[in-house]
Design a protein that fits this description.
single chain; 456 residues; alpha/beta; 7-stranded mixed beta sheet; 18 strands; binds pyridoxal-5'-phosphate
């Protein structure tokens, strides 16, 4: 029986000559169609041999081949509707760019530009100059340089200023960020020697000054961006650290992580450290991400004292870590938005979502519920509830933002099944499961119809 069925399977040649695959063959290379047909036949053959399959049809083989072709040639970047409640979600690409930044990327991608070319002298220029003036203006720093991400900015800073020497850091700030950014490892990979001081919960000024010796190259302060130490705690503020640094002639570097360019409390959002404050408080170098609170492209920015930033730029590692023209263009366009505070919120999606008024979130929820009720059919219970969103991206740890969520339950389906069903939609709809309920957080959803699955 099995052998008979196996003998009935067409050859790869026969299958690819079939009418049903003719069109595919004309759209793609013959080799690709052959590969897909071979894989489809292999799958069916394995099914027959293992006894899982007792029949097959030609249409089935063709459909299998076509779906192989589709997965081989289709785009692997898929859209996700973010209803997760995390505004800056690293796993789904953090900040959604402003239209200005998107336009800048298209412009830079479609043209040759003055990326590293000085139009006045006609000679080679410095790619940082595309953004440096604006970064100086927005942070009050003397100079700035840009690399691929903040991890790279920390690496470049440590390697440039402290290779082969000691870096002093409080035990309370030896952070790990998602995606295996561990500060002790980065310090090691930068060629520096980690010198921990203080304890997990308490570090005092004397801990730093006592640790300084002839081999000390810098004092590092890291923003504990994804957790908070509460209770019996003591931390040495940047201002005080900068004074210690000055007294002993040791530069002080702050890894701010998210680092905001504006005071978020002016927009009704809990305050996050502001880059300009760190500069004003005496940090010699401040590093932060381009795609966290700043709301721009993935990038790492180091601002600070001119003499030190010049050293960063001259390090050969900079060449390996430098940002590309698309990133720099998008970053420049994003920074330009910050020059006009009156229009910043409406034009910068990250800030707009973080500061979105509750009434507007509720409006979107009400509209979405109506559409969901019409689309989901029987068995579902759909309600609007109060909830909490988080900023994400290592910002505002432990501080929820009041929001409105749509909770969806079903008489038979569990919350994880509903979660999966929404995720399997095209485009995928990313909610979250909380206490046995599937939730859609409307804070980051602009169009209520976007959270309605199409195939139900
Ligand atoms: C997020 C973060 C980093 C890493 O930044 P990337 O831009 O993701 O490389 C480093 N330090 C701190 C404190 C952070 O919050």
């Amino acid at each position: 029986m099995k052998n008979e069925l196996l003998r009935e399977l067409p050859s790869v040649d026969e299958l690819t000559r079939d009418e049903g695959l003719k069109e595919a063959a004309s759209l793609h290379s013959a080799a690709l169609v052959t590969e897909a047909a071979r894989a489809a036949l292999r799958e069916v053959r394995a099914g027959i041999t293992s006894g899982k399959r007792s029949a097959f049809s030609k249409d089935e083989l063709i459909a299998l081949t076509l779906s192989r072709i589709a997965s081989m040639t289709g785009p692997s970047v898929k859209k996700i509707i973010n209803a997760s409640g995390t505004v800056i979600h690293t796993n789904i690409g953090r900040a959604v760019l402003s239209k200005d930044a998107v336009d800048a990327i298209v412009f830079a991608a479609s043209n040759n530009t003055n990326l590293e070319f000085d139009l006045v002298s006609g000679e080679r220029g410095d790619r940082d100059s595309l953004v440096e003036e604006k970064l100086k203006r927005l942070t009050g720093a003397e100079a700035a340089t840009v690399v691929n991400n903040n991890a790279a900015a920390v690496l470049l800073t440590l390697n440039t200023l402290a290779e082969g020497k000691e870096v002093i850091i409080s035990r309370g700030e030896l952070i790990e960020i998602g995606g295996s950014f561990r500060l002790p490892e980065i310090i090691k990979k930068s060629g520096c020697v980690l010198k921990e001081v203080g304890t997990t919960n308490r570090t005092h000024p004397g801990d730093y000054s006592k640790a300084i010796n002839n081999n000390t190259a810098l004092i590092l302060k890291a923003h504990t961006s994804n957790y908070r130490v509460v209770g019996f705690t003591a931390e040495v503020g940047l201002k005080e650290l900068a004074e210690i640094g000055k007294e002993y002639g040791v530069p002080v570097v702050e890894d701010l992580g998210s680092g905001s360019l504006v005071d978020l409390s002016e927009y009704g959002v809990p305050k996050e450290p502001i880059v300009a404050d760190s500069v004003a408080n005496g940090a010699d170098i401040v590093t932060f991400s381009g795609d966290k609170l700043l709301g721009g492209p993935q990038a790492g920015i180091a601002v600070g004292k001119k003499a030190l930033v010049e050293k960063l730029k001259k390090n050969h590692l900079k060449r390996a870590l430098r940002a590309d023209k698309l990133t720099l263009s998008a970053l420049e366009a994003t920074l330009r938005l910050y020059l006009n505070r009156d229009t910043l919120v409406e034009r910068l999606p990250t800030l707009r979502h973080l500061s979105r008024p509750l009434s507007e979130i509720e409006d979107t929820a009400v509209k979405a519920v109506r559409l969901l009720e019409a689309a989901l059919g029987k068995g579902y219970v759909i309600m609007i509830e109060d909830g909490e969103s988080v900023a994400g991206g290592g910002s505002l740890p432990g501080q929820g933002l009041p929001t409105k969520v749509i909770s969806i339950t079903h008489i038979e389906l569990g919350p994880h099944e509903i979660f999966r069903n929404f995720l399997n939609n095209d485009p995928a709809i990313l909610g979250r499961v909380n206490r046995d309920r599937f939730l859609l957080d409307m804070r980051t959803v602009d169009d209520p119809s976007s959270v309605v699955p199409s195939g139900c």
